[in-house]
Fold each of these.
Amino acid sequence: MSENPDLTNERASGTFETNAMAAVIYGSEKFAQRRREITEAISKIPEFQDSHPLVFMSREEKISEACRKLAVLSNYWNSLIDTSDEEEALHLYREVLGLEGHPLALHETMFIPSLIAQASDEQQEKWLGRAQRREIIGCYAQTEMGHGTNLRALETTATFDISTREFILNSPTITSLKWWPGALGKSANWSIVIANLIIKEHNYGPHPFMVQLRDEKSHEPLPGITVGDIGPKMAFNGADNGFLGFKNYRIPRENMLMRHSKVTSDGSYIKPPHAKIGYSSMVKVRSRMAMDQGLFLASALVIAVRYSAVRRQGYLEDKSREVKVLDYQTQQHRLFPSIARAYAFIFCGFETIRLYDQLLIDVQNGNTSGMADLHALTSGLKSVVTYQTGEGIEQARMACGGHGYSMASYISEIYGVAIGGCTYEGENMVMLLQLARYLVKSIEMIQNGKSRELGPMVAYLAENESEIDLNLGPNEYLKVFEYAARNQTWRATEKFQKLRNSGMSNEEAWNQASVELTRASRLHTRLYIMSTFINHVGSIVDQKVKGVLIDLLNVHVTYEVMDIGIYVQGLLSSNQMDLIRNQLYVSLETIRPNAVSLVDSFQISDMQLRSVLGRRDGNVYENLFKWAKSSPLNKTDVLPSVTQYLKPMMEKSKL
Ligand SMILES: CC/C=C\C/C=C\C/C=C\C/C=C\CC/C=C/C(=O)SCCNC(=O)CCNC(=O)[C@H](O)C(C)(C)COP(=O)(O)OP(=O)(O)OC[C@H]1O[C@@H](n2cnc3c(N)ncnc32)[C@H](O)[C@@H]1OP(=O)(O)O
Ligand SMILES: Cc1cc2nc3c(=O)[nH]c(=O)nc-3n(C[C@H](O)[C@H](O)[C@H](O)COP(=O)(O)OP(=O)(O)OC[C@H]3O[C@@H](n4cnc5c(N)ncnc54)[C@H](O)[C@@H]3O)c2cc1C
């Protein structure tokens, strides 16, 4: 069937090449090209297609479907991608497995990275190759039923038995059961388990252990292990998040991951070079989250923007033809700032992935000085991007009206998966407060006359306000954001200090200032996102692409500043606020002809999108009808439940 002419016209009105834009989004022409090649190659392999729409499947069917595809994938793996390239691998996973989770998700995102960061060279020799070849399937078991956030209160123990040189793992209470780890329930046969290291009755706190859970031949749980699935979730139902308990389960001493902390055979403990070095797997995932969430948001926007360009409802001036809903200013205001955020998140994502890779090298060379900075940055970023992604996806759903609420749009699934990110890898409020600790310390340095020692990301906290001339462009908006973040950070810190100086304990003062502190963290992070966006656009060579991204940046800076209006009242007059508001409306109009091309540029395939509304060809209505007819409820005209219950009820009522 040919493309819907409304979309053809939209594509014709674009002022740039989508391939050139994709090269900017994905960091290089080479990777953008590789993505397309991988997508193209997969589309020719029929076994990778869903056997029927995932949304009609039960959990068991979804998991089985994911396993089927993984088995097929293992035959093609080496021919489809450069296996040493993590980004290619993740693209392949996204295309084939989608976003609902699968048995290898945690293997790739946490198990292998934990081995790389935490296992000694000998341990890597033993396990890493096996994991990379997928001879074993691993997961990351840290969270317990009773504790996820407060890692110091985890209850699982690994007690060193000096006589046998083994660790004995135990789950002493119900609340100590590991609870949530992805792929633990039914798929993984090995796990990195975080347990309290106990030697001669001294608790050294949480440490990572490599633990075999299931027999490698029969896949049956090993004696001493209780393991299973935790049941259906809001989303991610293609994944078997699990529970795990230990009863006097013994593992060799060599199974404690010993790159950094060590236990010798006589039971001596060797400290790591940094107390939180064992948390690196979390930092790794957090450093990926801006990118992953940017892509979730992008997916919802591809659907909503394409659909809005073919959906006609109501009239503007021309009463002879209904208007595309994308032409309404309210629709543009609902969608375009989110397009800008999706771009901004992806740009930040590439930056934080690069920073993590550098940190990993530094730490392997004994330099842990960058850990606190990256922890603070990624803590704030994961919190802000997950929250704003959730907001943006929900707006995208509403922008699709009634059909957005149907699973045919697939937006609800994207939403459910994306907002999981507000919780996993550290609950958002908790992580904002981690960043706040860093910000408060920065203010204390300024108060102690050490402004010069501040890192580049917080140097603005020591600056004075300057005059703002909004006609000068994005950098002036950045100054507005700096003002807001600086003011709020000082205000929150001073509140905390005042409470503490009044005699309150440090903890209670912190608690009573915590809402204000989280606000400071959000503003600081949004400033970082904006400045990364500005820097990125500044570095673009292709002038057509750059021109459109400047337009998109204008949407971003004006929208973001309007959104934080309450924090800039002392800086901007109401006339200046009106000016910004009007600039935003103008920016929405400017970007309108490029809206479809901007979302096309994400190059997210129909196969991955799984959305009837977001189809690239825009043939929504005929496919919506086809999709509804394929619903299992429509297999028969009369359901057994009607025959069994409703008919007798109606018959009875007639009497
Ligand atoms: C193949 C896949 C295909 C596609 C992928 C696509 C998309 C991806 C999609 C889905 C991913 C799927 C599933 C998600 C998997 C989820 C996994 C998990 O959730 S794992 C569990 C995560 N758990 C957490 O995040 C727990 C949160 N809690 C903590 O991190 C800590 O407890 C907390 C930091 C809150 C406090 O720690 P605690 O030990 O109590 O600290 P303490 O108060 O003693 O000290 C604080 C002190 O330490 C500093 N610090 C803390 N953490 C770090 C760190 N990581 N690095 C450096 N420093 C750290 C902190 O700043 C503070 O310092 P100061 O005292 O202020 O100096
Ligand atoms: C989809 C998904 C996948 C997951 N995958 C894994 C996995 O693979 N492996 C794994 O180990 N875990 C996994 N988890 C668990 C996840 O990491 C935890 O649920 C998460 O870290 C939050 O911890 P919690 O559940 O204990 O929340 P809680 O800490 O109980 O949060 C409840 C409330 O208390 C508040 N709160 C808690 N502490 C503080 C504080 N100090 N200050 C202020 N407020 C506070 C929070 O902000 C929140 O509002 C997964 C979770 C989900 C949803």
Amino acid sequence: MRQNLGRSTRSIYLGLACLSLTLHLLLAFFCLSVLQTACVLPTSSSSSKPRTDTQGHQFVVRSSSSSAASSSHKLPTSPQIDEHHKLNSNMLHHRGRLSLNESTERKQKLILKVKGHSKLEALFKHPLYNLPYPEPQEDDWLLRVKTNEEVRDTSEEDEWEDDLNNDSKWQSASEEEGYDKITWTSDVDTHPPWLRFHLGITRWELYNRKDPILGHLTHYLATQRILGAVQKTGGTQLKLLVLFPNYGQALVKPMRQPRDAETDVNLFYFSDFERHNAEISAFHLDRLLGFNRIPPVVGRLINITTEIREVTSDHRLSRTFFTSPVGNVCFYGQCEYYCSTEHPVCGQPHALEVSLAAMLPDLSLAPRRSWRSPWRRSYSRTKLAKWEKDPTYCDTVKQTPPYSHGTRLVDLIDMAILDFLMSNMDRHHYETFEKFGNETFLLHLDNGRGFGRHSQDEPSILAPLQQCCRIRRSTLLRLRLLTRPGFRLSDVMRESLAQDPLAGVAPLLSEPHLSALDRRLATILQVVQTCQDQHSDVMYNDLEGYD
Ligand SMILES: Nc1ncnc2c1ncn2[C@@H]1O[C@H](COP(=O)(O)OP(=O)(O)OP(=O)(O)O)[C@@H](O)[C@H]1O
Ligand SMILES: [Mn+2]
């Protein structure tokens, strides 16, 4: 009896030992697979169309067949993003706002998300995000590289010719202090990311989502050494232009309020602060809508002292630096709104979150035209704009050039949809590249006043859609797709924003802002439905000929 009991206890022990061994093995296997997948981050582009490089072209303006893309480049993968996160969490550790544990936890979440199904990847694989564009012709590129003959034909090119004959690299006329020696050749691979971005701009979009250069550009903006910083003129609020050693530049907007602060309901739209995270989020949203009309924007933690104060040559700016009572370094600059001691931009004590937007080509190379929006607000505390009083306002707009012809009206409505989703009431003007005349996309610049309130929507932003009852078919189909659970706008937006370096500090948009996107999307589709119930020509069919 006792012997039997002993035997069965032994087999129970043996069984338990086997079970524990199996569990350990399973655990080890799971950890290994998680670590391995950490190197595969979802990226915006899964397949990129390699383009050919033109030989024997010298940089000045673009040639129709040359290209900004190169198949030899890889998309940014997690090591780069991880690097940003490390960078940010190190600085924040210094700031004492984020513990190491929290940062590891966030990384862990990111890794787990990578392992799981990516809605963002699925979205960008959808045919609606891969519509074939016609092959750009010479006139469809914003810039082109001059051919050797063109260079030879112009008078001042003796030096250039010498360079070319020697097959030497391009030299900067004046080697300024701190700037890199220029080593660009006609080979596109030698061009810095900002230049390749410029050379990739076409009549239809600012960038090709699938072009690997996009990843290089955002990495470049997030990590390049800042050589100089000056206040940028134009506009009403404080913003800086930072300069990089290889002649790249970025437009910087500083963090002025915590991420979760909601705009005071008693503030008029024209008195609202600009938000760095709105600039970043707007870029992601515009890309998710398939527009590609906002220059790439990336977040970065900068050192206010070493990366602004010590490198600025702008006296108007440097005069405004001070140390706050708690020892933080602050400045306020000179501008119309919020440039005073009462509204300082402060580091903690040196670390400051900012957004960096890629600069568009210089106006001397690519002039732009600024258009006053027909649905511009009055920018007055008392007056209403005409469109707010006249429900038939669109009838007049529809008959007025350039809205009476081509895609301008539906382009404007696309912009209204983007603005309604982020609740941006500050779209007084928009710009286009002069070279393309009226047949081109609209630049969605200046999005700093978006994402101010999540608990409230602003239906008047949709006035162009609601009053004109017109919408691009491709836009409507994408909007519908974004309501499906497998592509839900809030989910793809969360995933897209997680790729930004500042996501390691805190999510760029809080959850209430993300759910507001889904709610507003439903409102847009409701407005379209009401239009379709009452009118027959709501759809502008830009998909004719597609299956
Ligand atoms: N990425 C960019 N590249 C080049 N120029 C830009 C870029 N973004 C904005 N600009 C230019 O700088 C001007 C001012 O920028 P922005 O509109 O963001 O400033 P703002 O102070 O918010 O202006 P406003 O007070 O008019 O709203 C814009 O009108 C535009 O012409
Ligand atoms: Mn603005």
